[in-house]
């Protein structure tokens, strides 16, 4: 158990012992053997004194202390877990309050930068501020307030920062929706999916989810699954089916999924593929696959215009520890809506015209639902479109919605821009800042700041507690391993108790061939056939080196692992009880070793020396895996020299 460097000498014969052994004449026994009755036959054969050593240096009280330490550690880990849970609750509460103040339906606006194909006007008709956007046309001035307006130079990262709180809300168990809305070609797909160089919200969200999953700061475990579908011409099409090469009308089975709502109001789409995503690589693979089969076509406005609403669902499964055994599932919807468009402008005809009509109809239904929710109307018209039916349990009570309105900077798009901004204004859940008295506005901002501070503190504290839990768990598992080794030793001891008399009896029954390893210089009178050969001596010397080496590595390994944990875990290493235990253990080990050494020497001269041979099964060999820890194992002197 707690070995010291000196202990390795326990198993080695001292010079005196060697001398005393040499001084015994062959066939005689030392005085100390007087008490043992002679066994017939023993005197006929040359009596080889042997030394037995006992390397079991784990006294009973130390094992009990170890058990106590494990018990204490388990208790303290549980307390830390409770603390972490309450900190997480505190953080969650603060986040909910922030989101409630901001509104359960938040609206942000992003203005797309000019593209190479855009015609730029000298006169600016769109003026943007951090929270407002003003559209100016001759005789018209329209101002729209938003929680945030992203200017043309805003990066994908800037946008994602605003999405993160809603992501945390999803991780906390809420159903949430991030919806990109806007005219064709304004950057909805760019914002949601992005490019390889500039990843959008969805790939960043996946990365963030897995980052959170790996974080040790959780008192729960997380798993995720992914589904992707598009609402195309009023039909649902699974984007993750094995061979999704069809258009909606070509494969009715997977292209016309049905939506079910259970008694609790939870929505499920029958037959929709839901793939588990154990890691980011798998998630990215499925996501790329789903994206690649989305229906797009060329229009006057966008050469790869999305002709459908694309919905990506990440289901978050959250399982707490034993006290919170029930698994919770929440949905994170990422919705890239089809472009809102005036059909004449896009040059749509035939199928594309029908697609545009279908998109517009469902967008209008979505607007109605959001407006009804905002006004807290008794009836919410979810059933008016497939899109709103699917999102029913993620738009209503307890859910959070983030709507990103994408607009074009071009003058030719002004009418569309005003339509999109009006849609978002209708959807906003709270009164805009402009309509709020200054005093109230300030109070609101201050409250949000305080809550953010609370959230940050709780997060930091929870992180620290998470680290403490991790360190305590390492320490606990080390101590458990030590204890299990100890019990293994005890079991072995129980299985094979060996009294000196038994040893003696067995020695008598041992075939004489076993005596091969006895050295001639120990007993000059040994017959030549009983002495070891040069090869066997070399083997034994190698075996002995291995024995010593193993013992040393075990001891140093054991100690270093404890020191590692102790130095890592401030809370436990600094704990007076733990310090005392380690100190005590080391002291006791040394004490035990010294005692063993003192005890063993006379023992060698007593009963053991009368036994000249043990069967191989009772001997410790270099290849014995239990050698490092065998209690009371006995080694014959003759095997070591
Ligand atoms: N913020 C931006 N920065 C750089 N390029 C952008 C940005 N937003 C959009 N674009 C570019 O504008 C073009 C149209 O964008 P995108 O396809 O995302 O529009 P959309 O709104 O999804 O259109 P549709 O509704 O027809 O699918 C793309 O070439 C895209 O790379």
Automatic annotation (TrEMBL):
Which positions carry the signal peptide feature in this UniProt record?
A: none
Native organism is: Carpinus fangiana
Question: Which residue windows are coiled coil?
Answer: 63-97, 441-475
Q: What is this protein called?
A: Kinesin motor domain-containing protein
Q: Which Gene3D superfamilies does the record associate with it?
A: Kinesin motor domain
Where is the stretch described as Disordered? 583-626
Q: Which UniProt keywords apply?
A: ATP-binding, Coiled coil, Microtubule, Motor protein, Nucleotide-binding
Annotated positions binding ATP: 182-189
Task: Determine if ATP-binding is one of this entry's keywords.
Answer: yes
Q: Which lineage ranks, top first, belong to the organism behind this chain?
A: Eukaryota, Viridiplantae, Streptophyta, Embryophyta, Tracheophyta
């Amino acid at each position: 158990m707690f070995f010291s460097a000196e202990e390795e000498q326990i198993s080695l014969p001292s010079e005196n012992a060697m001398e005393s052994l040499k001084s015994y004449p062959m066939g005689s026994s030392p005085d100390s053997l007087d008490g043992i009755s002679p066994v017939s036959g023993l005197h006929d054969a040359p009596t080889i004194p042997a030394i037995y050593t006992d390397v079991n240096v784990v006294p009973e009280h130390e094992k009990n202390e170890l058990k106590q330490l494990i018990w204490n550690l388990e208790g303290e880990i549980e307390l830390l877990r409770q603390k972490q849970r309450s900190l997480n609750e505190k953080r969650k509460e603060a986040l909910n309050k922030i989101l409630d103040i901001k509104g359960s339906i938040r609206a942000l606006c992003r203005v797309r930068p000019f593209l190479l194909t855009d015609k730029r006007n000298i006169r600016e008709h769109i003026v943007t501020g951090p929270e407002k956007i003003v559209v100016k046309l001759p005789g018209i001035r329209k101002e729209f307030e938003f929680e945030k307006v992203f200017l043309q130079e805003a990066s994908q990262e800037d946008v994602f920062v605003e999405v993160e709180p809603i992501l945390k809300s999803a991780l906390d168990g809420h159903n949430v929706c991030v919806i990109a809305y806007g005219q064709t070609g304004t950057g909805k797909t760019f914002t949601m999916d992005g490019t390889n160089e500039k990843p959008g919200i969805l790939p960043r969200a996946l990365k963030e989810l897995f980052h959170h999953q790996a974080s040790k700061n959780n008192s729960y475990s997380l798993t995720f699954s992914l589904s992707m579908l598009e609402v195309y011409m009023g039909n649902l099409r699974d984007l993750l089916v094995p061979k999704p090469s069809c258009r909606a009308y070509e494969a009715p089975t997977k292209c016309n999924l049905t939506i079910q709502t259970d008694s609790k109001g939870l929505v499920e789409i029958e037959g929709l593929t839901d793939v588990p995503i154990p890691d980011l690589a798998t998630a990215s693979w499925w996501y790329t696959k789903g994206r690649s089969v989305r229906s797009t076509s060329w229009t006057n406005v966008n050469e790869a215009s999305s002709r459908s609403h694309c919905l990506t669902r990440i289901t978050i499964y959250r399982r707490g520890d034993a006290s919170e055994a029930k698994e919770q599932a929440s949905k994170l919807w990422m919705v890239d809506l089809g472009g809102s468009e005036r059909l004449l402008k896009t040059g749509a005809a035939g199928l594309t015209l029908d697609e545009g009509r279908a998109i517009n109809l469902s967008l209008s239904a979505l607007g109605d639902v959001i407006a009804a929710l905002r006004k807290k109307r008794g009836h919410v018209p979810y059933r008016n479109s497939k899109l709103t039916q699917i999102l029913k349990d993620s738009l209503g009570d307890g859910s959070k919605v983030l709507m990103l309105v994408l607009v074009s900077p071009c003058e030719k798009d002004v009418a569309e821009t005003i339509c999109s901004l009006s849609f978002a204004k209708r959807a906003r859940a709270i009164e805009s800042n402009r309509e709020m008295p200054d005093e109230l506005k300030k109070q609101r901002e201050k409250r949000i700041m305080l809550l953010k501070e609370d959230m940050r503190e709780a997060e930091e504290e929870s992180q620290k507690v998470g680290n403490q839990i991790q360190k305590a768990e390492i320490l606990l598992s080390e101590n458990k391993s030590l204890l299990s080794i100890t019990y293994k030793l005890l079991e072995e001891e129980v299985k094979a108790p060996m009294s000196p008399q038994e040893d003696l009896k067995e020695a008598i029954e041992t075939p004489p061939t076993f005596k091969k390893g006895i050295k001639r210089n120990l007993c000059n009178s040994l017959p030549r056939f009983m002495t070891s050969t040069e090869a066997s001596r070399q083997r034994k010397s190698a075996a002995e080196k291995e024995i010593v080496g193993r013992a040393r590595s075990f001891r140093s390994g054991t100690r270093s692992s404890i020191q590692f944990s102790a130095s890592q875990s401030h809370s436990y290493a600094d704990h007076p009880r733990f310090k005392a235990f380690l100190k005590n253990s080391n002291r006791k080990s040394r004490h035990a070793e010294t005692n063993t050494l003192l005890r063993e020497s006379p023992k060698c001269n007593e009963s053991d020396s009368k036994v000249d041979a043990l069967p191989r099964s009772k001997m410790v060999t270099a290849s014995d895996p239990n050698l490092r820890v065998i209690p009371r194992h006995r080694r014959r002197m003759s095997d070591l020299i």
